[in-house]
Amino acid sequence: VRVSASSPSISINIALDIADFAIMVLSSMTYDATEGPNAVVSVCAKVEVGKVARDSILYITTPIPGTANTATPILDFIPIAEEIMFTEGQSSGASECVDIMIIQDVFVEQKEIFEVLLLPNPQDLFAVFIKPGSDRALVSISDGENDRSVSVQP
Question: What span, in angstroms and rounded, lies between the C-alpha atoms of 70 and 73?
């Protein structure tokens, strides 16, 4: 820090090394699931660049407002807001996943969708970066009932 009487401004130089930070991305931008007993979809985040310094990220599921075929939390999937911890030293390619339960219902439906958001943990805000455009994934739920044949007896 340098301050002088003739120039009341303060200048601070900070050098950051990208190797000190991890850049996280979702492993895929789309995931497919089918309703069924014990159905789950695993959504994964991975370290794209850098090395982890005990960072955590948040996964949050959300319906997509204004979309006709949006999946309904509790009725179509179990919503999550979950923290995932990456351990110190994990580097490019390391991944951590969450499982989201898909609910089987008895209704014949079109594909339904919801989003999974990847967010930095506010407590670790300066230790991890989420790559813009790689922070949300679309999950599409296919209806298991569409595969069933139905016969009607006269």
Answer: 9
